[in-house]
């Protein structure tokens, strides 16, 4: 797995590390001294200490999507560790997502985690969260809008930089004419990925909009595109399930197009290994869920805000056939 650098200068980005609290056992001290040290270590500074928090996570996609299943696993792992009650909900419609956030505000939660795929739809309700003094953290989508909409920190990848990495990788595998398959129109993160890829690819690249909730229609659209333009030799999809569908279209049409994708799941590992998919851009969704919950716990218990006002990057990294074996055990358990 190869971490990618951005093409050209960009603001410095603060990175984060997993924070662990360890109780110290003092050898050679009296029994009462050791006990006191343990009590001090547990007094509000150790995960799980202090009052139980209630945190709402509201995303633009949810159960049944392998990517978001991984995000949830990370969030629930941190919630268990931190003694947090996690309330999860999702809706792809921006207005309905905002309504779910309003419900969380009405429930007087201790913190809110949101995605900002459609930031304009979230502006007013996040202002209400701020007015109610409920801290907000954003993940995955909307890094550029996060601070402006009142979020304390954003966890995710820089989608433009990730797109640039994907474009470079497409060029590296020999593609000269490509399509970027967009499965959700109006999603700013997906659009940024394609724009970044076009910037570094070097050849013609066209956006192909498909109906992401209807996989047979996705396959039909990709198949039709390959049939009408035999010059396409590269396909970039923006999610692992769409990559598998693109592979089916390539086989059906007899095309020589090579497929690369964003994001990963268990099934994608096998496709990387057999070469039907050339590469994946991994943004480590488990980290996004885990770190977002941890940040709200740290804020409540120790007044910490990570990132120094900048997004905290969880990717991108390029995963190829060479890395698939290393990633496979984690993908098998549903955390990569």
Automatic annotation (TrEMBL):
Belongs to the bacterial solute-binding protein 2 family. Gene3D superfamilies: 3.40.50.2300. CDD domains: PBP1_ABC_sugar_binding-like. It comes from the Bacteria. GO terms for cellular component: outer membrane-bounded periplasmic space. InterPro entries: Bact_Solute-Bind_Prot2, Peripla_BP_I, SBP_2_dom. It is found in: Cell envelope. This is Monosaccharide ABC transporter substrate-binding protein, CUT2 family. Residues 58-299 form the Periplasmic binding protein domain. It comes from Thermomonospora echinospora. One of its GO terms (molecular function) is carbohydrate binding.
């Amino acid at each position: 797995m190869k971490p990618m650098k951005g093409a050209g200068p960009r603001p410095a980005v603060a990175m984060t590390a997993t924070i662990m609290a360890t109780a110290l056992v003092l050898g050679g001290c009296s029994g009462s001294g050791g006990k006191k040290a343990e009590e001090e270590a547990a007094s509000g500074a150790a995960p799980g200490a202090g009052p139980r928090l209630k945190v709402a996570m509201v995303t633009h996609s949810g159960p049944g999507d392998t990517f978001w299943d991984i995000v949830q696993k990370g969030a629930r792992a941190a919630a268990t560790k931190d003694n947090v009650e996690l309330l999860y909900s999702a809706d792809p419609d921006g207005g309905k997502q905002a309504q779910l956030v309003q419900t969380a505000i009405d429930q007087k939660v201790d913190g809110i985690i949101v995605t900002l795929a459609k930031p304009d739809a979230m502006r007013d309700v996040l202002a209400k969260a701020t007015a109610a003094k409920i801290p907000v953290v954003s993940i995955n989508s909307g890094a550029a809008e996060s601070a402006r909409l009142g979020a304390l920190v954003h966890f995710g990848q820089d989608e433009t930089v990730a797109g640039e990495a994907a474009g470079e990788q497409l060029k590296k595998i020999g593609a000269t004419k490509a399509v970027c398959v967009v499965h959700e129109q109006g999603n700013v993160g997906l659009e940024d990925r394609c724009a970044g890829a076009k910037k570094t690819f070097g050849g013609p690249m066209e956006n192909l909009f498909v109906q992401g909730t209807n996989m047979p229609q996705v396959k039909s659209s990709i198949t039709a595109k390959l049939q009408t333009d035999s010059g396409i030799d590269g396909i970039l999809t923006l999610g692992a399930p769409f990559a598998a569908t693109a592979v089916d279209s390539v086989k059906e049409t007899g095309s020589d197009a090579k497929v690369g994708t964003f994001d990963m799941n268990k099934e994608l590992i096998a496709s990387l290994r057999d070469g039907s998919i050339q590469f994946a851009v991994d943004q480590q969704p488990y980290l996004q869920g885990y770190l977002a919950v941890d940040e709200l716990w740290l804020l409540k218990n120790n007044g910490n805000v990570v990132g120094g006002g900048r997004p905290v990057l969880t990717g991108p990294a390029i995963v190829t056939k060479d890395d698939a074996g290393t990633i496979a055990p984690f993908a098998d358990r549903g955390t990569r």
